[in-house]
């Protein structure tokens, strides 16, 4: 049995927080001989220690380590969201410790040692059995739930331009609706969200492989997500299940397409072909079941008993050439850097 110590509380991480008990987590893996605990007193007998970088503190590190232990860099926030992880300025000091503090990475990035998708694995959209009933609910057009008013991706600028061509219903902390706001923190009832045909699932930063949880929630709500272009959506999502703004050469062209779909039910219906009754349920590419989750991959990795490697510069690995900014002109959506693919 391999013991994995979670050094931090891992707040809001699916399968690893107090809200998501981990006692039976590895029992669903084909290699189930792992256990995850929060008990730091078991550090000396553990095979791996996971550090959640969103909660990382330089003055809260193990006083000793076994050379055979895996110290795992674990991160699920976007590379671009540095303001959410102020401790990042201390990371270079970690690199100086023993020639490299970390020897494994487990993040949403596909170039990690252990790929961990914090959202897609846990969303399994249902099949649609009654299309007529579904369409009867959809009285509204485009929804945007937003809690951060100014973002690194400048998504708010894009929405401002889009709003010139069609109505975008904005709710959440930054909506300016005050007490009349039914979604103060972006949390609305299922019925409210499903009354819309489209939802803007825009990331707050445009970085390689990063996608927002709203994307999967929108798919689960029987609403077509409109995405910003940061993630490798074609590898993650069913074909023709989303609309990518990068497929349109201007904001107006996107607006025209959305208006066309709102007025043409048969064309709109094509975005739900993958989940209509009688079709196969959505299966993630190469991720058929929980055994392919990040937790099971980690368990298998530490059972391989390979000598731990060393990550010499985790800051460089995490930040270099990972994000880009967008520029929104009056007519044209311009990329400041080429597509990340």
Automatic annotation (TrEMBL):
Name the pathway it acts in.
Protein modification; protein glycosylation
What are its GO cellular component terms?
A: Golgi cisterna membrane
Ranges for domain Fucosyltransferase C-terminal: 136-317
Give start-end ranges for the coiled-coil region(s).
none
Q: Which InterPro entries match?
A: Glyco_tran_10_C, Glyco_tran_10_N, Glyco_trans_10, GT10-like_C_sf
Is Protein biosynthesis tagged as a keyword? no
State a single Pfam family of this protein.
Answer: Glyco_transf_10
Which protein family is it in? Belongs to the glycosyltransferase 10 family.
Keyword set, alphabetical order: Glycoprotein, Glycosyltransferase, Golgi apparatus, Membrane, Signal-anchor, Transferase, Transmembrane, Transmembrane helix
Q: How does it sit in the membrane?
A: Single-pass type II membrane protein
Q: What is this protein identified as?
A: Fucosyltransferase
Record carries keyword Transmembrane helix: yes
Principal subcellular localisation of the protein: Golgi
